[in-house]
Amino acid sequence: MLVDALAKSGMQPELAGSGPQMDALMHLHRFDLVILDIMLPGEDGFSICRRLRAQHTIPIIMLTAVGEEVDRIIGIEIGADDYITKPFSTRELVARVRGLLRRASYGATASDRHTPLRFDGWRIDPVRRQVYDPQATRIAMTSAEFDLLYVFCQNPGRILSREELLRHTHAGLAGPIERSVDVHISRIRQKIEENPREPVLLKTVRLGGYLFTATVEPA
To answer: Is the pTM of the predicted complex or chain greater than 0.85?
Structure first.
């Protein structure tokens, strides 16, 4: 049903019934997005998501029949970009897919006016959507994490609310719950801060939002 709905929306979906089938397809084709069900035979969706995120920056939408918020947060914490609880309409799924694809391609579509940026030894490339640490090692980030970090680099020294961050990262249609911004930022801190428990670059402003304190300049 979902394959038919996506195909009718102009996409080219491929169906895999298990982790090994997905691996085989990804070895043969280049995909723009993964829709991942939690309940799968053998390796479950959470495990597959962790494994995918360790190897790829591809956007991931997770599907589950479990409606508990804690499960949605777990999905985001292990690297999912969005989370949809069953039952849902195919129209909602198509809207989420389009929104997430738009976010993931944002840097590439605007590549003519975007140049790499540097902060505190780090380098962020909005065209290739890649982040490098001060030792020039590429750091894996989800699509949502990259979008947020790039928005902070475009707005250094300015307090950004959660609502602004959702709007600037084109996340409205993709629909991550507002609290998921906190989870994504926590993951960013784990990657760019020397001590994530006492962040220096990405600070929380009580009742305000977040503040990126680094000096940003063209790379």
So the answer is: no
Q: Is 113 helix (H, G, I), strand (E, B) or coil?
A: helix
What residues contact residue 57 under an 8 Å CB cut-off, 6+ apart?
Answer: 129, 140, 141, 142, 143, 146
Taking alpha carbons only, the member of 165, 141, 171, 139 closest to residue 153 is 165
Can you give the three-state secondary structure of 3-14, one letter per residue?
HHHHHHCCCCCC
Query: What is the rounded distance in angstroms from the CA atom of residue 135 to the CA atom of residue 133?
Result: 5
CATH assignment at residue 107: 3.40.50.2300
Q: What's the domain count of the chain? A: 1
Q: Which domain holds residue 163?
A: 2-218
Would you state the pLDDT for residue 85? 84
Cα gap 46→101, rounded to integer Å: 21
What does each C-alpha distance from 74 to 3, 50, 210 come to in angstroms?
A: 26, 11, 22
